[in-house]
Batch of 2 targets.
Target 1
Amino acid sequence: MNPRTIWVVFRKEVLDIIRDRRAVIFMVIMPLFLIPALMYLMSMFTIGSAKGIAERNSVVAVVGAEDAPALIDYLRNEERQRFNPPVESDLNIFAIEQQSGVNAFIEILDDAPVAGEEGQIRKLIDSKQLDAVLVIPPDFQGQLQDHDKGLNLRIDYLSTSERSEKAFERLRRSLTTYRQRVVAGRLENASLQASIIDPFETAGQDMATGQERAGEIFGRILPYMIILMTFNGAMFPAINMAAGEKEQKTLETLLASPASRIELVTGKFLVIVMTGVISSVLALVGLYYGFSMGEIGRQLREVMTLSIDTQTILLAVLLVVPLAFVFAGILLTISVFARSYREAQGYMGPLTILIILPAFASFLPGVELNFTLSLIPVVNVSLVLKKVLAGQGFEVMHYYALTFVSTLVIAGIAIWLCARMFKNENAIFKV
Amino acid sequence: MISVKNLIKIFKDRKRGEIRAVDNVSFSCESGKIFGLLGPNGAGKTTTLRIVSTTMKPTSGSIEVDGLDVLKKPSLVRAKIGFLTGNTGLYQRLTAREVITYFGQLNGMDRKSIGPRIAEIAKWLDMEDFLGTKCSKLSSGMQQKVNIARTIVHDPPVMVFDEPTVGLDILAARSIVDFINFCKNQGKCIIFSTHIMREAERLCDEVAIIHNGRLFAQGTVDSLKQVAGENEFEDAFVKIVGEK
């Protein structure tokens, strides 16, 4: 093996790729711009529709309103003025209500077009004339004053409809406040203090640091994207370098040059590995900036610190390199085997699915690294990357090492397969 | 310069079983001479030439190029050969100069010596105007020239042409024929396969007729005509192939 020859092959292939529009799109444009833009738009859309529902008044009909005039009056007037959903402390980037000062409220229809029959209520909610129906039992107000037990307020709603669900939520919240007011009145009448029934409050304090919370969100998406982009970036160069050479009818003359097969394979191989790694690093950069953009970026920055340090990046890239070797080996083998560019492309669909599924491991909740999972290709990289990106790379160093070594072994097998395929006369000269 | 002895190449095919693509073929060829390998399609010409240029391995037999065994020193053998086939393509995204430079470098030349060499070849072949043009934008005649330049950039002592004129128009084919003669005048050893009798008649100092992998006759065109008792070489060819 002459390093100079490998370098000659390497340089030529890099030149060829830079001028291949398709490869550049998959290697640079897609990870750096397209994916972040798409994810950005998608989350904007989700937020947009959540916001739409939050801003809309809930239309509610009341059955038996005449039996609870005080309650209806409360809902109509007082509650409407102070209606402001309580702030939820959980990290929820889609909890728009708390930020945007939405002043949607419950709108109570003046004449209830409902006889209290379930089928009819259902029909009205389905046809969007109503969001929910509050059913008040007969003589509600009177029995409330008599401290009667077993009073029941029923809310008819549809859990499968978002606006109906929202109406239910708002009604329940308002009724809870009303109940507290009734309780407070009774306590006052009995000359008791409010603290008698509210001896203590509970408050949660989140110990997670901003980086940990960022890791939790990013840790799910990033490993998957990194793995997918490594594969995508390597795909077109790999197809081009063998199947493409067959199609351009340059392979035979290349093999007739003094360069040995192993030098040719090594040169091509290294370029594929490089494009895979470049693509995954660009995906990291793209997603990082994609998530820092606009409304979502603003909200994210409020709840978490986005700091990917050098150590994290080094650990991540160091793991991606052997994975890129595995992909390069598989892809180049298929590329040599295929008769034409098109045939090679045909193999990519099923292969992509084969890569995407195990890479999805990082998305699954509750899947934790263990010895067995550290040996399953792609799954292990996905799970270890998740830990690394959450800043916990050093805590799982033994699994990291296991994943690194097992991926390296598979890379070795893939390279061996590839070299064999390159020496296979039937594959090389297949027409 | 080239010597092939008892060359056998067997392909294994799942459907058709064993195929003897080349069956006990021997020939040799000298510097400054053109040796023609004649035969119909599927005769075994391409396989033989691939084995000579080491891209395929023989099942048995011994092949030497300039005294080097192709099995033992394949890289050195390839460095001595310029290889051109009729359907050789070019890297479409590279310029003519980049393609020629790449093959020069693969042949161990350094950039300093490739530059003047390309200038020299470009002058011969009248291709100075399009050296900086991407191959995808070149006409087929121009691509032909780039291919020729790529083949001789390292000035190899042996030239292997596998049906070099296949699919070319008259003018392009003519320029290939001229190029083969040019190589002969430079004292190179040339081995050349074709199924076009007129080309062989015009170019070759010696020819071998192969069919179904076997060598049927070998000698000068005139001697083969005499053996067959025919005035036209094509008739002689048909008679020789058909007799056995």
Target 2
Amino acid sequence: MARTREVEHRVDTLQPALQPALATFEAVVLPHLDAAYNLARWLARNEQDAEDVVQEAYLRAFRFFDGYRGGDGKAWVLEIVRNTYRSWLRRQSRYASAEPFDEMAHSGDFQVYTQEDAMTSDEERSRLRSCLEKLPEEFREVLVLRELEEMSYREISETSGLAIGTVMSRLSRARKRLEQCVRRYQREAAR
Amino acid sequence: MNCVPDRIEAYIDDELDAGERLALERHLATCAECSSIHTRLLEQKIAIKAAAPYYAAPPELRESIRTALHRAAVAKSRPAAQAAFWRPLAIAASLLLVVSIGWNVRSLATARPPSNFVESLLDDHIRSLLAGHLVDVPSSDQHTVKPWFAGKLEFSPDVKNLDAEGFPLVGGRIEYIAGTRVAALVYRHRLHVINVFTWPAESSQAGPAQVSQHGYHVLHWTSGAMTYWAVSDVAMADLELLRKLYLDSSAQ
């Protein structure tokens, strides 16, 4: 708490010229915080790591803000989130051997269901979600950007640094793999 | 029109222009195969939206980011705010900076470009200020911190408690810098945090070097076989004092 008060106090002492800079940054970049967190959460697949990545990405974005030349703020922020995630991942894998993906912890919740109909559709949903979480990262990323962020091919290309043709083929492969995974689940369930 | 599944994907992704859309819709009406691909893709799209949660940022994250941004902005503004009092010093410092950048280019040319290296030190420093990231071993006792590094690093860092001199030890953690696992020793000076990154120097690097960037200061020195990089938003003079304390206590 003491730290917060100290910061507030020091904000008042900001150079007048810097207040608009910070205000501009906040106006351009903070509205995309949900998108930034959503992407980080889908990439890192857990809350704590997603928060770390987004915090770091926002500080980086602030430092690089001089280099922002208008245009699509969302694609710009998500590009930084994506790159921050990549370097975060590299650091993690150097500290410890990468933790294997814990399927139990990520398999969605199979709670108690009251109606049989509801159970079927809930199960289908959690199957699909689990398949999406298990997709290799490069496929998961384009699907999240396309289907959850509803970004255009051009915007996905800006964010990911991939050519538009590559975005299209990757998206297409991601959809096929997702479908295969769901089918596999259905076959297992039918047995 | 022939069957082109990727056109169908572009269609459901709303990436076709009006003419292309019309042509594809006509084709879908007559081609059972494409029509079933279209249905499947559309169902999947709807299913993803229904099944995949959109994770909104937690309110605490928004708050802590705003706090961190304000702190970063204050750090950015500080050198300018002090310019009036420190102008003669600032001119001298900037001359020194030019010299030290030249020095950096030479000494780090073998490892990686100096700006990237200093950037990565600054990144690590800023990241350490975020809640819960400062130390892996919180202790003001050098006899607790030093053994903690044993087994985690191939070297044993020289950990000093400089509490009496105004630099209380907060603890330590491990960082990854320029391709090496290094020890980060954390000190406080008044309300500021100082990270001292240390590892065995690959070659004999002579002389101190300093860099100031975005309101942060970086001071480098070597002692014995170890290299040290101190990073903080305290004045460069405070970092110089820390370096002196380090060197003096090593000499004893």
